Structures are given as C-alpha cells and as structure tokens.
C-alpha cells in the first residue's frame, strides 16, 4: 500500500491533483479565470489594508520583528511601516490582516475564504523569488484549486469543528508556494503532505471573541510556506495526506468526505471562478438574509420602523457559526449576529464596513430590532448547502402585513458578480477605512492589479 | 457561558490548571521532581545531539536560516555550527533533533514524549530572556504538567488519530514559555488557548516513512513559543480550549475524554515524576516485549538461535502504531517493527541506538526471526493501558520447550528508574552516535545539567 517517496506515477486522487498543479501553464488558464484572479487579488489588498489595525495583526507583526530578520525580501501590504521581512513572516502578517474585516471572498462548496491565505502567501513567495505577474497568477490559480478541493473533500462535518479556511487553505498555500519555487511533482506532493499534517484551527475562539481567526489564517500562510521551502530542502511529507488511513479525512472528518472533489474535472472547472466577493461586511452566513431583506424592503416599500419581526430561514451551518457569538458584545461579534446585522441593513440600507461601529453597538433601535429576529432551519435550503447558500426572510410589519422574499444568490456571487467599478469602489472604501490618505497610491495599485499579467514582478504591492 | 477575556477568576478546569502554573514557585517543587527534571533535561540534550544529522533537522535548520535572523539570542544544542537564532527557530530545530532517535522520554498516561517539546522550547526562551536554572526548572515542571494533563484529557481515541506529543505538547510549550516570560494568569490562559487552536500532527507519515514526526515536535515548539510571545503582546486566545463547545475535546477526540485529569491533585502529583526514560532505541510500544523477552532468555538460558517463534501479547495502541510501518524498510521504520526489534534484542542482548543500522536491515537472520514473531491483543493488558504499558511474551524453542514471561514495568520507568550512571552512560552513547569527539565537553555538560538549580543562566548548553 505504501509507495516509495521517489515514485512519480500518480495513482491516488491527491497525486493527480498535485500533478495537474505542477504541469498547468499560464497559457492553459482561461481568460475569465485570469481576470477573476486579478479582481480577487485587488479585493485582498483592500481587505488587508482595512484590517491593519487589529490587535492580532499588531501582535503577529511584533512576533515577526522578534523572531524574524531585521529586513528581508518581502513587504507588508500595509506599506506604511517600510517594514520588510522574510516570506514566512510576510505571509503570516498579511494573512492575518486580510481576514480581519470579514470582507474577503468565499468559496461556497468548500466553505472557505481562499483569498486570505492564498494571496498573502503567494505574494510573499513571489516577492522572495522575483516571480512575474503571470507566474503569480498561475500559482494563485493552483493554490485555489488545491485548497478549495481539499475543503470540498473535508466537507460540512469538518467545518462544524474546524475553520476550514485554515485547515484546507494550508494545502493551497503549500501548492501555490511550491509552484513559485518551481518544485517538481514529488517535492510538491511532499509540501502538500507536510502542510496537511500541520492543519489546525478550531472555532472555540467564537465563544469568547478572542483572536484565533486571524491566527488561523496567519499560521496557514506560515505553515504552508514552511512546507514548501522545507520540501525544496528535501523534507519528505506524507503522500496521501487527504485519503490515507491516518490522513486528514480519517482524523479531521467526523462525517462524510467527498473524495471525488479532489480530482474531478481538473483543468476544466476552476475553483477561483466559483468564489464570491463579499459585498456586506458581516459574516457570510448572514448575506442571503440581508439580500433577501433589502430586496423585500425595496419591493414592498417597507422601512426600518415599519418592521415588527423578521424570521430568517436558513441552513444548519449558519446556526453552528452564528450561535457562538451571543448577542454581539464586540464590533467583530456583532457581524456574527443575524439579528444585529439585519437591523443594520434595514436601518442603513446597507451593511458596509463603516456601518459596524462601537456607536452601532450602543444603538438601542438596533438592539431592539435584533431581539425581533428569529432564525429557523429550512430543510430544503439546508439540503442544498454548501453547494448553494440560499436565504428566505419573512417580515411581519407593524401594520399587520406580512411579506416573504428569497434569494438564491447573494450580491457578489459568481451568478451576480461585482462590476469592475464596484470592485474598485469596495477597494477604495477598504483603503479609506484602513486610513490610507494617498489616493493616487490607491489608484496606482488598482491599475497595477488589473494589469497583473504584464507585471514583471510583484514588488511594491503595498499601500 | 462566555466570559470576559479580562476576568481572572478560575471557574473551569483549564483555568485552575493555568492558575496553578502561574503561581507555583520553585521552592514549592519537591526535590525529587527537581532532580528528575535535571535528568530528563540531560537526556534530551543527548537525544538532540544524536539526532542532529537527520534530513528533517537539516531542512528545518535551512528554513530557519532563510526565514529567521542572521544571529540571535539562542543556540542549538548541536553547537557545532556556532549558529544562533531567535527562540522560535531554536526551539523548532532542537525540537526536531531531539525526537529523531526514539530515545526521548515517555509519559504513559498521556501517551506523549514531553521532553522533546518542553525542554527545547524552554531552553530557547530561557536563553532569550536570561532565565536562571531555577526559573528554567520551574517552567519545565509547569510545561510537563500542562502538556501531560492535556494529553490525559485527550486520551486514547485521540492518540489513534493524532501525534499527542505535538497536539498536547504545544499547550505545555506555551505554558513553559509563558512562565519564563513572566506572563500573568490571563496572558498565560490566552497563550495556552492560542496553542491549542494550532494543535496538529497526524500519523499518516508512518505509512510511507516520511518526515512529519520531527515536523510535529518542531512545530509544537514554534507554535507554543508563538502563542506565548503573542500573548505577551495582547493576542487573546480562547479561554476554554480543552473543554469548550468548539475546543480540542469536541473536535479532536472521537471517543471519551478524561476531564478530571486536567486539574486533579495539582501541586501534589507531578507529571514529570511519571515520565519514563527510554532505554531501548525502538518505539516505546516494543519495550515491554523487549524487556520480557530479555528476562525470559536470561532466566531460561535461551539463545537467539534457540528460538522457534515468539508471541507478544500487548495492547491495541501497539497495533495501531506498529501496524503502520510495514516490515521496516528504513532504519527508522525498523524501530517500529515488533518482530525486527525483538530480533535485534534477542541477537544482541540489547536494542541500543547502535544496533539499528543499514547493516542490520540486511541481516537475514534478523529478517527470518522477524517473520516468526506474532502480536496478539491481550484484553487484560489493553484494559490497563495507558495507565500501565505491560507486556507478555511466549517463546517456543526449537527444542519444543515453551516459556512465558511478563513485565509490568519497563527499564527506565518510574518504578525501575535509571541510575545516575546509566543516565550518564546513555548521554555519552548518544553524544558518540552524534559524532561528538570532545569528551571533556560532554562531561562538562553532564556536570552542568546535574547542577542546574545553581546555574545563573542557560547559555552554553551545547555540545
């Protein structure tokens, strides 16, 4: 059953996936995938600058200054510090900052936010080795594919316990980094295996609003980069880390795995095209309800003050995640309260990053609205999750009228993509939230991101 | 249910454990515990020097040179390179090298090898902050207590899937490092929580003899040190990472947990006193059978050539671990083959580090002996595992005679401790295996280790 680490003939699913990851060329990647990569990369830059002031980012940055070199080949997306470091620490810091404001992308069927781990890690390694824009794009496409397929394999029951963005994402990071380091098939397989045996990230932090969410994405970047660099230096990783008898499926999945997800339609389906932009600044599990509520309020001309109560019908995973944050005592927790988020959306007509503030936490009209929102499990919606993240809201008005509205897709989903100008607007808003005053620098970054396949290197992608 | 991160009143088991860890003083630690700490520390130094040439250690060292500072406050136990680095990387490298030769200690009831993570990490942090010998001893005692109690809590079903030395050990590392950094109760609780949400390490590497075993211990050191330094810089970790609804027990334990283990008899029972030295150089699951076989051969005057077959009666976990390495194609795998190990012991009268060689792998008499060894599950022995690691062997001789021998304890167990001269002899053998020629340096290290409580700092503990 075991196979020599030197063998190069793929005969397991993960081996086929890794073989594809090492062989695909930039020119094989369809243009819509290239375009979406650039959009998601720009979106991640915005998320990172908006999240720069979080205490977890500060603590991780301080750790990097204590443990890392005094200067290195890699930059922070928050360029204000003129701080440079080694790729493992640059990935770690950018991986933390880009996951703070809950505005990073979502790949539904894997239940992961791939951008927050893939782009920071790939950017760091690309800066370290001087990769071109095309190399970078190909590495990110590969990283998405490996990470998202791993997440799909691990599935819903894994997500109930683990922060899949990190546990599956670390494999994607290793694959993207391996690609930029030009590792061969066997080395890449080792890197992915070493990444998987480090997979970690528990939801416990949700209970007391502590800082692990950023730790998980930061460490997925660090650990995946470690796996790739160490594989280049002959560190062997387990070959079948997903399906092996003591692999991730056996240890980290209490329910069903989806083996076919690992290697079906390689080169034809692209995970990156199935990733959604987050338009609202709240937990992604609230978005279908927010969109349905806003649609309902517009269609029936219902105002915030008119609403007596709201019932949202949703899937089980929404209960699992949103149920951990209580009533939302902190700004971060408030983005995980369905009632609070719907209140914000109903009152402001949007739930943007600037709508979740300390002031909002103390707004008694929002707190009262929050109490009048109830979540109900919808069997049909649940059955389609995580392939589809749907939502239905039922609004009872003070007038006695009752309305129902459903959405199959949220704004920003592949079926309802953001326009280029919306993506740019979101980037500008995120940069403003992050305190960037230099508008021409923002415009320059936007231009460079959309020109990525012609960039000679990845240096200077900092605000 | 959730509690403010700022609250300082312990009301969960992990809070009581962490409170004890922050309050215990060196003078509270009984002398036998202090003495055993020094012995285990010396034993770890020997293991690290013996493991210095492993490819995993080389790859991790190279990673540290690429990602870390060009020089730092911390040394490698292998001092030959005059290499200094930051504490996270020193812990990482020493944590890898001390787990290579399968000679590090064993804490039975937690099924962990605590020394290989606690001492390397504590040594690095102690060197970084200039801790005294007494501070170091207290930190290691605390690290053992937190790591081993976490391992006992996680239990047997966890160990079937996970390398508990790393998954529980990382909490011990965080506690030991926190202690040396003089973190307060709330900070230490954060550090332990951040450690636990990074807990990782799968057995899949056993299937193809890849390098994750050392990755796990290396990363437990790195991750636990990260958790402590970040907690000092205000990173909040989940407060109830063991028993919380999305904590380690919920996510990483398919079977039963043992909550009482977390905080029973704090300050009265010391995990460190319950740790065994490894006398034989093979997987610890083979030791009861090796000791029983050697005892049987001596008692009945049976020689290697006289043996027709051996049946070893053992516990389930031995099957789970030993069953993954096949017939032992590599030197490392051969230490996990019950048949091969018993052959070595029977032929050489010992199973020391110098007995497992490429030559031995090709020894046809050992390979034939190996085939005549059968493992059987013994219900009674299994019921007592992991509190007791017992073994019975039944030997059928070519003469037709049959003998049975059992052992309740292995040589090196708390009940059959190594003498000081045996510990010194083992250290000298390990150093010789590691290629150390400077005998006076070895003697000096032995002397310093036994004088540890009077040492003013921990610098220079290198071969």
From TrEMBL, chains A, B:
Single GO molecular function: lyase activity
MmgE/PrpD N-terminal domain boundaries: 15-256
Superkingdom of source: Eukaryota
Annotated ranges, domain MmgE/PrpD C-terminal: 280-451
UniProt xrefs under InterPro entries: MmgE/PrpD_sf, MmgE/PrpD_sf_1, MmgE/PrpD_sf_2, MmgE_PrpD, MmgE_PrpD_C, MmgE_PrpD_N
Pfam families for the chain: MmgE_PrpD_C, MmgE_PrpD_N
Family: Belongs to the PrpD family.
Protein name: Cis-aconitate decarboxylase-like protein
């Amino acid at each position: 059953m075991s196979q020599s680490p030197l063998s190069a003939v793929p005969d397991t699913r993960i081996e086929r996936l890794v073989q594809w990851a090492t062989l695909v060329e930039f020119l094989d990647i369809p243009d819509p995938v290239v375009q979406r990569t650039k959009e998601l990369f720009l979106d991640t830059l915005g998320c990172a600058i908006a999240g720069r002031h979080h205490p977890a980012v500060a603590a991780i940055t301080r750790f990097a200054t204590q443990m890392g070199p005094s200067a290195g080949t890699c930059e922070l997306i928050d360029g204000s510090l003129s701080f440079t470091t080694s790729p493992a620490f640059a990935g770690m810091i950018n991986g933390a900052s880009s996951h703070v404001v809950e505005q990073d992308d979502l790949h539904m069927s894997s239940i992961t936010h791939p951008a927050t781990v893939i782009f920071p890690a790939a950017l760091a390694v690309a800066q370290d080795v001087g990769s071109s824009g095309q190399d970078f794009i190909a590495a990110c496409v590969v990283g998405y594919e490996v990470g998202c397929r791993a997440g799909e394999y691990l599935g819903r029951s894994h997500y109930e316990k683990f922060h899949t963005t990190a546990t599956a994402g670390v494999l994607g990071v290793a694959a993207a980094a391996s690609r930029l380091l030009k590792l061969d098939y066997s080395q890449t397989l080792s890197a992915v295996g070493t990444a998987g045996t480090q997979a970690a990230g528990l939801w416990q932090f949700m209970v007391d609003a502590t800082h692990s969410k950023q730790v998980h994405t930061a460490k997925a970047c660090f650990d995946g980069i470690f796996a790739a660099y160490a594989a280049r230096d002959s560190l062997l990783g387990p070959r079948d880390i997903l399906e092996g008898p003591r692999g991730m499926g056996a240890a980290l999945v209490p329910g069903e795995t989806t083996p076919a997800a690992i290697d079906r339609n390689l080169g034809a389906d692209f995970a990156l095209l199935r990733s959604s932009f987050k338009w609202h600044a709240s937990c992604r599990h609230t978005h279908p309800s927010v969109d349905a509520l806003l649609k309902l309020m517009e269609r029936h001309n219902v105002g915030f003050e008119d609403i007596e109560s709201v019932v949202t019908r949703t899937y089980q995973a929404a209960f699992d995640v949103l149920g951990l944050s209580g009533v939302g005592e902190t700004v971060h927790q408030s983005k995980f309260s369905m009632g609070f988020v719907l209140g914000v959306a109903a009152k402001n007509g949007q739930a943007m990053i600037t709508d979740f503030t300390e002031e909002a936490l103390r707004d008694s009209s929002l707190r009262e609205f929050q109490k009048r929102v109830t979540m109900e499990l919808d069997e049909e919606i649940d059955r389609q999750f995580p392939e589809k993240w749907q939502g239905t809201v039922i609004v009872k008005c003070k007038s006695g009228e009752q309305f129902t509205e459903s959405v199959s897709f949220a704004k920003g989903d592949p079926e309802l993509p953001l326009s280029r100008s919306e993506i740019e607007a979101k980037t500008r808003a995120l940069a403003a939230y992050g305190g960037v005053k230099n508008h021409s620098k923002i415009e320059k970054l936007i231009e460079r991101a959309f020109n990525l396949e012609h960039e000679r290197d990845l240096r200077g992608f900092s605000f």
